Amino acid sequence: KQEVTQIPAALSVPEGENLVLNCSFTDSAIYNLQWFRQDPGKGLTSLLLIQSSQREQTSGRLNASLDKSSGRSTLYIAASQPGDSATYLCAVYSGGFKTIFGAGTRLFVKA
Amino acid sequence: EAQVTQNPRYLITVTGKKLTVTCSQNMNHEYMSWYRQDPGLGLRQIYYSMNVEVTDKGDVPEGYKVSRKEKRNFPLILESPSPNQTSLYFCASSYERGSYEQYFGPGTRLTVT
Over the stretch A42-55, which tens digit does the pLDDT of each residue have? Predict the structure, then answer.
């Protein structure tokens, strides 16, 4: 059964710092991995999706990588800003129309 | 605008009073799904649908029902809500092939007293 883990659970950094969020999964047979952002009490905003055949995806200050063989993905945020403060979730789709989410990393960027 | 909509956005109800949360998407997606989000547990899949009249259980289906009579709609039904179903609910949709990228609705916050 697929399990998805996100480390750290919470992170506080000063503004301007580059940071890495981690997502690990137990079954490497995945179709895609999707990173989301969630503001408190709000919905999910899709940030990046990496298909199983891809190694990384970039959007602005965000870069997501995928290493299926080791069961890991990282989300790199460059030059963090207070507006980046949110919870970041990774979700793994392994086929069979089932998606497994990690518990998230709560990020706080201090001005 | 491509979107997934949910109604109501907020709902407070009492134990045992049947309720329905609606979900609709305008992207002609085949796949739709319901999740619940609870503190410390993350998002867990309740039910999903691969197409009209085709549904299956996710990880936490107990106490919920769904139906898919039209491609665009996927309502979530709680026939006898209980306090442990107090949660934040999300509906999502995607194409059944390709990238399988999921699009999420804004969420419905349900409180059962």
Answer: 889 999 999 989 99
